């Protein structure tokens, strides 16, 4: 278990499936998540739980201070470059604006940089998801470029931003937080 100020992260359990499924089909969340997991039915997820969770992308449940599952994080090491990771996050819309995303990302970054030897962590975010972009910037990510017309949502194509943080940048953030 990985602990932050407002949340803790734990491995996904079968009891999380209903909430994950609800998030994967929530229209408000779908506007922003860049095509994250979507499953045909809750029954499908239950039947294929072990296969779904045994993919190369690791998924962690985000649990708040009231022991409520508020979302999930994913991370994956690039196959062609050691110690470079990509991450993603989904927070239930009813929990937006409470700092759970920022706390979760900081906990995951600490884990990846301090315990997994990451040298770089990156993510991709749709350009109109301003709340997420602000969160990522607070976590130390910098905008490194964009992919044009990368994401289709609400009848239009949208650009996505590539954001990244390097180990030395995260180390500097950690030192500033301590002092």
TrEMBL record:
Q: Does the keyword Transferase apply?
A: yes
In the UniProt record, does the keyword Nucleotide-binding occur? no
**A Pfam entry, by short name:** Acetyltransf_3
The entry lists its GO molecular-function terms as: acyltransferase activity, transferring groups other than amino-acyl groups
Instruction: Tell me which PROSITE patterns the record gives.
Output: GNAT (PS51186)
Question: Which domain of life does the UniProt lineage start with?
Answer: Bacteria
Q: Which InterPro entries match?
A: Acyl_CoA_acyltransferase (IPR016181), GNAT_dom (IPR000182)
Q: Which UniProt keywords apply?
A: Transferase
Domain N-acetyltransferase span(s) in chain numbering: 7-168
Gene3D superfamilies for this protein: 3.40.630.30
Q: Which SUPFAM superfamilies match?
A: Acyl-CoA N-acyltransferases (Nat)
Q: Which residue positions does the secretion signal occupy?
A: none
Enumerate the PANTHER family for this protein: GNAT-FAMILY ACETYLTRANSFERASE, SPERMIDINE N(1)-ACETYLTRANSFERASE
Output this protein's name. Answer: N-acetyltransferase
Per the UniProt record, the source organism is Clostridium manihotivorum
């Amino acid at each position: 278990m990985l602990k932050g100020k407002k949340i803790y992260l734990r491995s996904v359990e079968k009891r999380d499936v209903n909430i994950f499924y609800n998030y994967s089909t929530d229209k408000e969340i779908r506007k922003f998540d860049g095509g994250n997991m979507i499953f045909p039915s809750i029954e499908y997820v239950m039947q294929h739980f072990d296969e779904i969770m045994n993919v190369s992308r690791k998924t962690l449940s985000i649990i708040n201070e009231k022991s409520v599952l508020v979302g999930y994080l994913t991370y994956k090491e690039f196959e062609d470059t050691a110690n470079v990771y990509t991450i993603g996050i989904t927070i239930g819309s009813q929990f937006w604006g409470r700092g759970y995303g920022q706390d979760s990302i900081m906990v995951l970054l600490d884990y990846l940089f301090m315990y997994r030897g990451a040298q770089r962590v990156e993510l991709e975010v749709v350009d109109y998801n301003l709340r997420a972009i602000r969160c990522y910037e607070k976590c130390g990510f910098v905008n490194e470029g964009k992919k044009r017309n990368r994401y289709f949502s609400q009848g239009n194509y949208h650009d996505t931003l590539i954001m990244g943080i390097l180990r030395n940048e995260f180390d500097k953030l950690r030192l500033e937080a301590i002092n």
